[in-house]
Amino acid sequence: MKKTIRDYDLSGKKVIIRVDFNVPMKDGKIQDDNRIVESLPTIKYAIDNHAKVILMSHLGRVKTEEDLVKNNLKPVATRLSELLSKEVVFVDKTRGEELESAISNLQDGDVLLMQNTRYEDLDGKKESSNEEELGNYWASLGDIYINDAFGTAHRAHASNVGIASNLPNGIGFLIEKELEHLEKAIKDPVRPFTVILGGAKVSDKIGVIENLVNIADYILIGGGMMFTFLKSQGYEVGKSLLDEESIEFCKKMMEEYPNKIVLPVDCTCGKELSEDSPMRAAIISDIHEDEMGLDLSLKSFDLFASYIKMSKTIIWNGPVGAFEIEKFSIGTKVLCEELAKSDATVILGGGDTAAAAIQFGYKDKFTHISTGGGASLELLEGKDLPGISIISEK
Ligand code: AMP
Question: Fewest CB atoms within 10 Å of the CB: 10, 103, 183, 299?
Answer without folding.
Answer: 183
